[in-house]
Each structure stands twice: as C-alpha cells, then as structure tokens.
Amino acid sequence: MSHLDTLKASLEAALGEKIKSLAVALDEVTLTVDAADYFGVAKILRDHSELRFEQLIDLCGVDYSAYKDGTYEGPRFAVVSHLLSVTKNWRVRLVVFAPNDELPIVAAVTPIWNAANWFEREAFDLYGILFEGHEDLRRILTDYGFIGHPMRKDFPTSGHVEMRYDAEQKRVIYQPVSIEPREITPRIIREENYGGL
Q1: Rg (CA), the chain
Q2: Over 73-128, what HEC string results?
Q3: Does residue 178 sit in helix, strand or coil?
Q4: Which of 14, 28, 119, 172 registers the highest number of CB atoms within 10 A of its CB?
Q5: What are the tens digits of pLDDT across the range 70-119?
Q6: CATH number at residue 35
Q7: Total tally of structural domains belonging to the chain
Q8: What domain range is 32 assigned to?
Q9: In whole angstroms, how far apart are CA 69 and each of 44, 60, 78, 100, 150?
Q10: Could you tell me the pTM of the whole model?
C-alpha cells in the first residue's frame, strides 16, 4: 500500500460520512467537505492520532464563476487549505464551498490553526468570503475605504476613481481616473536569429 493510499484510508476511517469527495491526482490528496462539517473536520484532521495535521500551510479563496468557460454550475466561492502533518509526513488539500453565492460564509479555522488568521483576512478582503468566528475579520491588502473585492471574476479591470497622496493637502485624496483606457498589442519579433535560436 502506497503512502497516499494509507492517507486516503486513514481519512476515510476518521471522517466517514463527512467526506463529500476524496480524490487522488498528481500525487496529491484533495478532500472536499460541506460547509456545515468544515470546522469539525478541520479539528479531526488536526487531533486524530492517525492523521495529525499540525500545520496549516496555506488558505485561499477561489471564485469558480468563470470555471470551465462559464459552464460550471456549482457553488461560486470555495476556501482551499493546504495542511501538513510533520508527524506522519503527508499533506492534504481541504476544500469547502460556501453554500450561498450572495453571502459566502464558512467557519473560521483560526481557533484550530492560528496561522489561518491573515489568510482568512486576505480571502475576505479579495473575495468577500466571510469567516464565521474570526476574531478580527477586516481588510488586509486594500484600503479601508475600498469598495468591492478585487479578485472576484466580475470585478471591473479599470475603475472610475484613483487614489493618491496630495502633498499640499497632506492627505490621501480620491479623484476621477485621468488615464484613458487603451488596448496594448504586444510587439512581435520576426528576426531570423533572435536570441541565438
């Protein structure tokens, strides 16, 4: 039995019916669970003696609205976490979909892995995913007055207002965008021996 098969069997034994899907592809295990089971599953992944996922390596938001060229019909927002067991020397990807596209909410896992703190703030800031139970859920990368969530697929690529520091007023000011939108066409190099090729 391979290392991944052992991990898969351990996950199935520990989580049972809480597993929505369990896939092994490209030497990685991906576990998908329902939002209602997310916090409980995360706690089991950390504490179960056969799993021991002590470290959260990464957590990010995902917007599936344009997935598969827009033919995807599942939930729009997901939270994907990468976990590491130092004790067992294995990794797992944990995926949870927010059940409501209009107000995406999943449980915060900061009480389980405090490393999730800034990652959850980033997913909130960039995707608008709310983490229920997070003690300090506020923007982390954009300005406090920023409107919208810039990593959403429907966020406009150019805005109507720009922000800059005004030395005379000694403060940040907002003003209409002064840059005309333009289409940039890359230059194509057609030299015979370009780059020594």
Answers
A1: 22
A2: CCCCEEEEEEEEECCCCEEEEEEEECCCCCCCEEECCCCCCCCHHHHHHHHHHHHC
A3: coil
A4: 119
A5: 888 899 999 999 999 999 999 999 999 999 999 999 999 999 999 999 99
A6: 3.30.460.80
A7: 1
A8: 3-142
A9: 36, 21, 18, 21, 20
A10: 0.81
Cβ–Cβ under 8 Å, residues 159 and 177: yes
End-to-end CA distance of the chain: 48
Query: Does 157 reside within a domain?
Result: no
DSSP 39: H
Of 119, 110, 158, 162, the closest CA to residue 141 belongs to 119
Contact 63, 80 (CB under 8 A): no
Query: What are the structure tokens assigned to 50, written together?
Result: 């056969």
User: Are 78 and 111 contacting, i.e. CB atoms less than 8 angstroms apart?
Assistant: no
Residue recorded with tokens 């090729």: 197
